TrEMBL record:
<dbReference type="Pfam" id="PF02826">
    <property type="entry name" value="2-Hacid_dh_C"/>
</dbReference>
<protein>
    <submittedName>
        <fullName>Glycerate dehydrogenase</fullName>
    </submittedName>
</protein>
<keyword id="KW-0520">NAD</keyword>
<dbReference type="InterPro" id="IPR050418">
    <property type="entry name" value="D-iso_2-hydroxyacid_DH_PdxB"/>
</dbReference>
<comment type="similarity">
    <text>Belongs to the D-isomer specific 2-hydroxyacid dehydrogenase family.</text>
</comment>
<dbReference type="GO" id="GO:0016616">
    <property type="term" value="F:oxidoreductase activity, acting on the CH-OH group of donors, NAD or NADP as acceptor"/>
</dbReference>
<feature type="domain" description="D-isomer specific 2-hydroxyacid dehydrogenase catalytic">
    <location>
        <begin position="29"/>
        <end position="290"/>
    </location>
</feature>
<dbReference type="InterPro" id="IPR006140">
    <property type="entry name" value="D-isomer_DH_NAD-bd"/>
</dbReference>
<dbReference type="InterPro" id="IPR006139">
    <property type="entry name" value="D-isomer_2_OHA_DH_cat_dom"/>
</dbReference>
<dbReference type="Pfam" id="PF00389">
    <property type="entry name" value="2-Hacid_dh"/>
</dbReference>
<dbReference type="GO" id="GO:0051287">
    <property type="term" value="F:NAD binding"/>
</dbReference>
<dbReference type="InterPro" id="IPR036291">
    <property type="entry name" value="NAD(P)-bd_dom_sf"/>
</dbReference>
<feature type="domain" description="D-isomer specific 2-hydroxyacid dehydrogenase NAD-binding">
    <location>
        <begin position="96"/>
        <end position="267"/>
    </location>
</feature>
<keyword id="KW-0560">Oxidoreductase</keyword>
Length: 295
């Protein structure tokens, strides 16, 4: 686990003969039989696995496992697991907060006041009831966000590869999602087919002055293209909880782009969710012991 995170093990009792250890970097060496790691802590690939000769369980403290090389782990007999659905409500709430802040121009208004400008925006915000929210992906988080948005009278479009059985939203093509969404919110896993798909061409198809929200993975978007679209005024704002590099370097293009609202990969966090990844890790370990694993 990353020591910079505020996950704790204080309320958990490790199995007999075991002890917990929280490291600031991905550990290496002998004697480590089970490892839990967050996406923010780093990646685990073949070289890291080779440096952990005793590892038998590799656990993602997140829903996504794109920071783990599951193929390389399986080839070395390492069991991989994740933490499913532990923060669905939290991320949906956070995404909705980013949507509302974007539509109501809150970051822009706050910035102007701090600059000494007490004035109404030149472009008045739209009513939520007149706003179309587009969802790329329709897993549990996107579904929870859709239900929240519909309660606020927003129209919701969805693009996903599988058919959906939810008559409160409308399933559309990728092209229609881009062309018809006033706010586009991303909710797909990071795989080869989704990496960088929201590029310069995709952004150019969005309505003028649309808003972008991302609580999924930073690598889904071309960050240079997003920064350019913001500077050119083609994109009204970007509200992002994730970036391709976390924390971002000082020269990251979105740090200097206008109308960007950033949060530090915190959408998952609440006083309830904070302990769930470690509890899940303990449950996986306990199940392995009960199953007679040499762990």
């Amino acid at each position: 686990m990353d020591g910079k995170q505020i996950l704790t093990t204080d309320h958990l009792t490790p199995p007999r003969g075991w002890s917990w250890s929280i490291a600031r970097t991905v550990p290496r060496g002998e004697g480590i039989h089970a490892l839990a790691i967050s996406p923010e802590s780093g990646t685990v690939g073949p070289s890291t696995l080779d440096a952990l000769p005793d590892l038998q369980i590799l656990h993602a403290t997140s829903v996504g496992t794109d920071h783990l090389d599951e193929v390389a782990a399986a080839a070395r007999g390492v069991i991989t697991s994740n933490t499913p659905a532990y923060c669905t409500a939290e991320v949906a709430d956070h995404a909705l907060a980013l949507v509302l802040a974007s539509v109501r121009h809150l970051p822009i208004l706050d910035r102007e006041i701090r600059r000494g400008q007490w004035a109404l925006p030149t472009r008045p915000p739209s009513l939520l009831a007149d706003t179309t929210l587009g969802l790329w992906g329709f897993g549990p988080i996107a579904q929870a966000l859709a239900h929240r948005a519909i309660a606020l009278k927003m129209k919701v479009l969805v693009h996903t590869r599988r058919p959906i059985d939810d008559h409160s939203v409308r399933q559309v093509s990728w092209e229609e999602l881009l062309c018809s969404s006033n706010v586009l919110s991303l909710h797909v896993p990071l795989i080869s087919a989704t990496r960088g798909r929201l590029d310069r061409d995709a952004l150019s198809r969005m309505p003028a002055r649309a808003h972008l929200v991302n609580v999924a993975r930073g690598e889904l978007i071309d960050e240079v293209a997003v920064a350019r679209a913001l500077r050119d005024g083609d994109l009204a704002s970007a509200a992002l909880d994730v970036l391709s590099t976390e924390p971002p370097p000082a020269d990251h293009p979105l740090l200097s782009a206008p109308n960007v609202l950033l949060t530090p990969h915190a959408a998952w966090l609440s006083d309830r969710s904070i302990h769930r990844p470690v509890q899940r890790f303990a449950d996986v370990l306990a199940a392995s012991i009960r199953a007679g694993s040499p762990v």
